[in-house]
Amino acid sequence: MRQALEAWGRQQPALPLLVEKPGRTKDEAPRRWHGHSILRRVEVEYSKGRVTQEEVRFVVVHSSQLARQQTQTYARAQEKEAGAIADHVRQVHTRWFACEVDAEAAIAEYAHRGPGRRGRQPQSWRHHTVRYRVVADTRPTRRGRPSKTDPPPMEAG
């Protein structure tokens, strides 16, 4: 019976406003439920085992409450994943390698092509494509204070 009423409710172009409640806060929009009250004859079984046809009132309601909650949850999950990717990119940018072989090994680890940790399979990014490349660069070393006449010591990586 429930599936039949759900199908009937989906076929209706617009259900009338049944209940409206104000939002929980000033910023929250009012909550509205659109629906329709229907009387149907259905089989009813009583506790003593007697089965009869009775007229029962059903209320078919279209509610957007779960849709709003799902939208908020999805938005939070997207923000969390974007933060995880930003942290990963920040971590990758701060790593410095002395040679190209070490950098390639780190890329394999980041791309989850290398061995997993503690015997586990490596986990890859599920919904994102992360691209890596090796770039030769130099940066000033942080070993002591150079004299004013000498150029700052640089290291290659």
Structural description of this entry:
The chain is an alpha+beta fold and 157 residues long. The protein has a domain at 2-63. 32% of the residues lie in helices and 25% in strands. It contains 3 helices and 5 strands; from the N terminus they run αβββααββ. The chain has helices at residues 2-11, 65-94, 100-110; strands at 17-21, 31-45, 51-63, 138-140, 154-156. The strands form 2 sheets. Strands 1-2-3 form a 3-stranded antiparallel sheet. It has a two-stranded antiparallel ribbon with strand order 4-5. β2 and β3 (51-63) form a beta hairpin. The relative contact order is 0.09.
* Range of strand content: 15-25%
Q: How does the overall form come out from the CA principal axes? A: elongated
Number of helices: 3
Cα radius of gyration in angstroms:
32 Å
Architecture blueprint of SSEs:
Blueprint: H1 2-11, E1 17-21, E2 31-45, E3 51-63, H2 65-94, H3 100-110, E4 138-140, E5 154-156
Antiparallel strand pairs: 1-2, 2-3, 4-5
Offer a concise description of the structure.
The protein has 157 residues and is of the alpha+beta class. 32% of the residues lie in helices and 25% in strands. The protein starts with a helix and ends with a strand.
